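tool=predict chain=A
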Amino acid sequence: MILRLAGPERYQLTAADALGRSLWAADYEATRFHFIDFRRALECHSGKAFPLSDVPLRSLPITALPAVLLGRLPGQLVATGSRGETKSYVDSEGRRWTVEEAAEGGVASWTLWLGGKPVLWFRQLEQESVLSHPEGSQFRWRQVVVEASETALETITPPPGVQNVDCELLSYLR
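tool=predict ok
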């Protein structure tokens, strides 16, 4: 997976399999979202930030992906208190978050709570990041390369023959 981040309102995320074949691409700019599924030869365009339906990600809008991948808090949170090293926050939807900061700064872990139960949690380990869900789904990744780019992000162009569909029809984007 490659994250190209031009700012909080502009990013691209592309994924390929172990052989380098393109799986999908997401291109987000402010209120414009473009998704291409290369395996199914489908693409969609949307003007809203909807959640991904993969179990761990359905609680977060697609705009939160760069922050999660970089080990940051996914969105603007308002502090509500602290207990020891754990700080409490509330997001714009009124959901409770608990956050532990890393000794060297940044985020060591965060948990999103609904109805007193954790529904999504992130942990920064020594060499990798882990995003978990109580149903057993877990994503693990490690940041391999970070490099600055001097050029602006170009729009991702779908290959010939890709069918344009409504994003609501792509079940993994709901």
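The longest helix spans residues 65-69. The first strand starts at residue 2 and ends at 7.
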